[in-house]
Write a structure and sequence with these properties.
single chain, alpha/beta, TIM Barrel, 2 domains
């Protein structure tokens, strides 16, 4: 059964930092970083001769001090490579929050990993994320997202990978990504139709904070939930752009207050400050306010809770 587009996960995914599992120092640093999600990468950032060492590093790290307050995602190598099966054995042993699949081209790519997790008796909470980074992946984004809503699929999120997509299509890396926007919006339509989450691609020049800031604003306007990052310097701008601002929170609270009035019982459309507001907007307002509360909880010192 398909889910409503508004029932996707309420986890914070504003800043999704990719960290090479081959780098123990980078792994340890994640404890102090204010990102929402960490992708522990066994794929692109790890040389072929270092794959086993990266798995060992990651096992030692995740079995040590818990990574509190952040989603833990492991990006594996494809199952068609020499390392994919060993990566999946590690996923089953460590039970992260999700496994990120590279170069997902069709629904069966997701279902194959779903079957492996089921065979390993992995908990239902262990989800699947899918990298959409090939022409076939973009063309099949809707089918992949739809299959993700079938029983047992575990799919939660699509992550756009533009470096590989540019390489395979010949589209040049230009500010504004004007020739890529239609493909990005295809992914947004797919996730919104089937209640998933969408994460925008990395910005390669981590020293160009102004350029990154602009791209975050553009991605937020397109409807992305967050952005995949390659450097800690990118965390603050991502959190700022993909989090709700004060005016949006105030508007959402006003909508919730209006619908809480007994006089609105049974009404699907009401007047709020001269605007016609539907109950659909109430669901959106509740989602936004809940997200703001999650952020406030994150910012409180340990032992305190947000009001």
């Amino acid at each position: 059964m398909s889910q409503s587009p508004l029932t996707r996960s309420m986890n914070l995914r504003r800043s999704v930092l990719s960290v090479p599992a081959i780098n123990p120092r980078a792994l340890e640093k994640t404890h102090q970083l204010d990102c929402d999600t960490v992708i522990f990468d066994l794929e692109d950032s790890v040389a072929p001769e270092k794959k086993a060492e990266a798995r060992e590093n990651l096992a030692a790290f995740l079995q040590g001090k818990p990574l509190e307050g952040k989603e833990r995602i492991i990006r594996i190598n494809g199952l068609d490579t020499n390392w994919g099966r060993a990566d999946m054995e590690l996923v089953s042993a460590l039970e992260p929050d999700a496994v990120l699949l590279p170069k997902v081209n069709e629904p069966q790519d997701v279902m194959s990993v779903s079957d492996l997790l089921a065979d390993a008796d992995a908990p239902d909470e262990l989800r699947i994320w899918a990298m959409i980074e090939t022409p076939r992946g973009i063309l099949n984004a809707a089918a992949i997202a739809e299959a993700g809503r079938t029983a047992g699929s575990r799919l939660d999120c699509l992550v756009v990978g533009l470096n590989d997509l540019r390489k395979e299509t010949g589209v040049l890396p230009q500010p504004g990504r004007q020739y890529l926007v239609p493909w990005l919006m295809q992914v947004i339509l797919a996730v919104r139709a089937y209640g998933l989450c969408a994460i925008d691609s990395v910005f390669n020049d981590f020293k160009d904070i102004d350029g990154f800031d602009t791209e975050c604003a553009e991605a937020r306007a397109m409807g992305f939930d967050g952005k995949m990052l390659i450097h800690p310097a990118q965390i603050e701008p991502a959190n700022r752009h993909f989090g709700p601002d004060a005016s949006a929170i105030a508007e959402a609270e006003a909508i919730m207050k209006a619908f809480a009035d007994p006089a609105t019982d049974g009404l699907n459309v009401i007047n709020v400050d001269g605007r016609m507001i539907e109950r659909l907007h109430l669901v959106q307002a509740e989602t936004l306010v809940h997200k703001a509360r999650l952020i406030a909880e994150r910012q409180k010192p340990k032992g305190q809770t947000a009001n």
